């Protein structure tokens, strides 16, 4: 791309970015990332933003808000400290990556060229370089009116000379300067939300530390650590590790010694699964842990042993420094045997005696195991509970306020824009309430006569809403249950829409079918139907990078939100759908219809059997008649024109259930006559037609019921002959009997009835 074209594209992006509302943080950052790629020619970049420190923290960090060319999970879980310092607080060991080039560029407020990235004398940068395969990088601070907002990094997997970076440095500086104020607005808008989320994590660690103190107070342990499963730059993408989330100790010095030992360069602050350096990971492997999941049934069971039994280097150092002689390890796994977290207790001699007294089983139960189960329940409530902060309340109020402002969106001339802006505003607030990392709202619509959940139509035209790291085209997904759709067509949203129930999936990071996830890299996802009466009109689909993230309380909250916004979402969808039909009839141009008239037409269109072309022709006749007879100067089709047309017509209101029931019954009657008259085989008319989704489950069921009612003795063989499954001479014929068995299995396994 020539420099002239680069400048033109960059100018377009600046206009687009500065014209976007600060709410759309992901869209803005994606456009900035586009600009970085266009200007530099390098396809890999990272955008770090720095927000004011959150409550209880004196440390400012660079957070990776947007990455391109890398694994989202790997980079986004790693914060970078702007200053090298100590642990965040006294009860948690979580600490961002330190000693990096990114932090140096942030502090200096000057561009920094790292030509040999992994060879610099900075430990954090070396780790980044090795994990992300960065050989060279241009680090550019984001500055607005003297305030450093963050750092952008343009990366290369090859050694790149400074002259290459210098060739686009000035253009890049101009581009970033032009969008700096908008970025400042984005940070100011989102800072309270993100600060509250960080404070919430700190409070979770604090609550967990109070829970860990209970066994210490009882004399069972001297040091307790809660280790949570993580994937980050130091562990690598394929091997999980355990990082300290919360800590409690009898003596402050023991905590410091544990901290210092784990922070040693040999261990890098985490326990990597598969390592023999730690008692916990060694014990996990003894139990059959294969770096991914447990292969044996030994899980959620405490293990008590002497530190010398394993001779692990980390615990040997701890024993020398602090005098620990034994440990209790309690790993917690899910149903799929994936490790969620682990609690480790380190014991000195006095505590060992007490724990040994708890090991013998009393009435078949170990007192130690009972205490660990109670501890697990309390920790689960902290880790997987709904936010207790004011964020939930604040943004629930915002959702109600947006819902009350429905008319603002309804009056927009661009009807699709009114619908999508309403849904986007709702979605962003839902994501704050739920804490999700990405999400979509899709509307239910027909494509080629079949029902789909649609976020985007062909050509990237958004009719729903999407937020988070979703920048590619979102394909529509079929609505249906596992019994109605092929496996490759199944999706969480589609099943939820078909059944009208909330669906939650956990531990889905290994699922190949991306239709189950709103965006890549998610470990939990939830689908919530927006319903009006018995009809599903839209779907909310959220994703999180954390396992078991969407609790029952979150589900109840999302269900309540869907009920609040359902009626207004329905009105906007109806209006959009009728506007699309009107556009088709009028060659891409709207006739002059007033807003209230279009709303009324949408209501009629969805409530009655309307032949829309004829009905519109009648409306236009009434419109012309009104203008001619009354010399009315109003050039628009008015509400009165549509009401007059409606009163002159004889429309019947749709009873959808009766209509569908009658349609299914008519189809079943036709197929039944074909089968009984031997005009078609059962396999072609029912079984194969059902697998191609040409007939519904109800039709297949009705065909069977009609045969059952007709025959005096409805045995399965008699029904099979009656429905042309096999010939009358089936006795003694192996092939014919196989057909009868396939017929039986079709109804049992596919339709769900036992015959």
From TrEMBL:
Domain GAF: start-end pairs: 418-579
Biological classification of the source: Bacteria, Pseudomonadati, Nitrospirota, Nitrospiria, Nitrospirales
Organism whose genome encodes this protein: Candidatus Nitrobium versatile
UniProt-listed InterPro entries: GAF (IPR003018), GAF-like_dom_sf (IPR029016)
Name of the protein: GAF domain-containing protein
Highest taxon listed in the record's lineage: Bacteria
UniProt xrefs under Pfam families: GAF
């Amino acid at each position: 791309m020539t420099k002239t074209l680069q400048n033109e594209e960059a100018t377009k992006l600046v206009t687009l970015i500065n014209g976007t509302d600060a709410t759309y943080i992901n869209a803005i950052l994606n456009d900035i990332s586009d600009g970085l790629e266009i200007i530099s020619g390098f396809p890999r970049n990272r955008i770090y933003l720095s927000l004011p420190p959150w409550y209880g923290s004196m440390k400012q960090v660079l957070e990776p808000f947007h990455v391109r060319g890398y694994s989202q999970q790997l980079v986004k879980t790693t914060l970078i400290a702007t200053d090298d310092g100590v642990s965040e607080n006294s009860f948690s060991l979580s600490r961002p990556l330190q000693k990096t080039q990114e932090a140096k560029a942030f502090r200096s407020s000057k561009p920094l060229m790292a030509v040999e990235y992994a060879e610099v004398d900075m430990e954090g940068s070396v780790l980044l370089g090795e994990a992300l395969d960065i050989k060279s990088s241009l680090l550019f601070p984001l500055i607005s009116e003297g305030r450093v907002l963050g750092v952008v990094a343009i990366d290369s997997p090859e050694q790149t000379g400074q002259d290459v970076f210098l060739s686009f440095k000035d253009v890049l500086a101009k581009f970033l300067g032009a969008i700096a104020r908008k970025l400042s607005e984005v940070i100011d808008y989102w800072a309270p939300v993100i600060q509250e989320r960080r404070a919430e994590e700190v409070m979770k660690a604090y609550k967990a530390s109070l829970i860990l103190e209970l066994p210490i107070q009882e004399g069972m342990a001297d040091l307790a650590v809660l280790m949570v499963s993580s994937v980050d730059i130091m562990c690598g993408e394929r091997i999980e590790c355990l990082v300290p989330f919360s800590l409690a100790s009898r003596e402050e010095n023991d905590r410091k010694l544990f901290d210092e030992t784990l922070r040693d360069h040999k261990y890098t602050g985490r326990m990597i699964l598969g390592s023999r350096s730690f008692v916990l990971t060694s014990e996990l492997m003894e139990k059959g842990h294969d770096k991914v999941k447990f292969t044996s049934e030994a899980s959620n069971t405490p293990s008590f042993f002497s530190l010398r039994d394993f001779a692990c280097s980390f615990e040997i150092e701890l024993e020398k420094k602090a005098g620990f002689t034994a440990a209790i390890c309690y790993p917690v796994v899910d149903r799929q045997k994936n490790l969620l977290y682990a609690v480790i207790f380190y014991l000195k001699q006095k505590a060992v005696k007490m724990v040994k007294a708890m090991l013998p089983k009393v009435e078949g139960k170990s007192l130690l195991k009972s205490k660990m189960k109670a501890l697990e329940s309390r920790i689960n409530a902290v880790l997987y509970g709904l936010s207790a902060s004011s964020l939930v309340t604040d943004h629930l109020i915002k959702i109600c306020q947006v819902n009350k402002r429905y008319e603002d969106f309804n009056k927009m001339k661009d009807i699709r824009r009114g619908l999508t802006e309403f849904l986007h505003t709702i979605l962003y607030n839902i994501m704050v309430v739920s804490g999700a990392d990405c999400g979509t709202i899709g509307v239910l619509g027909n494509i080629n006569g079949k029902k789909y959940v649609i976020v985007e139509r062909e050509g990237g035209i958004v009719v729903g809403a999407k937020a988070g790291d979703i920048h590619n085209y979102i394909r529509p997904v079929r609505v249906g249950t596992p019994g109605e759709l092929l496996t490759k067509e199944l999706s969480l949203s589609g099943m939820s829409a078909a059944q009208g129930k909330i669906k939650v999936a956990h531990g889905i990071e290994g699922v190949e079918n991306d239709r189950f996830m709103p965006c890549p890299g998610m470990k939990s996802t939830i689908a919530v139907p927006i319903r009006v009466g018995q009809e599903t009109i839209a779907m909310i689909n959220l994703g999180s990078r954390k396992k078991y993230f969407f609790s029952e309380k979150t589900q109840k909250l999302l269900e309540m939100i869907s009920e609040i916004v359902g009626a207004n979402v329905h009105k906007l969808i109806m209006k959009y759908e009728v506007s699309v039909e009107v556009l088709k009839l009028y060659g891409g141009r709207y006739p002059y219809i007033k807003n209230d008239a279009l709303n009324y037409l949408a209501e009629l269109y969805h409530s009655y059997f309307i032949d829309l072309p004829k009905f519109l022709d009648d409306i236009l006749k009434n419109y012309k008649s009104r203008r001619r007879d009354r010399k009315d100067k109003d050039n628009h089709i008015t509400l009165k024109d549509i009401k007059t047309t409606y009163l002159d017509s004889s429309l019947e209101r749709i009873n959808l259930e009766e209509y569908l029931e009658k349609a299914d019954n008519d189809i079943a009657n036709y197929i039944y006559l074909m089968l009984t008259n031997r005009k078609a085989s059962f396999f072609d008319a029912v079984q194969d037609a059902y697998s191609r989704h040409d007939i519904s489950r109800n039709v297949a069921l009705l065909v069977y019921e009609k045969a059952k009612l007709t025959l005096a003795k409805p045995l399965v063989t008699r029904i099979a002959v009656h429905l042309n499954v096999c010939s009358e001479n089936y006795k003694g014929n192996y092939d014919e009997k196989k057909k009868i068995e396939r017929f039986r299995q079709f109804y049992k396994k596919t339709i769900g009835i036992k015959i």
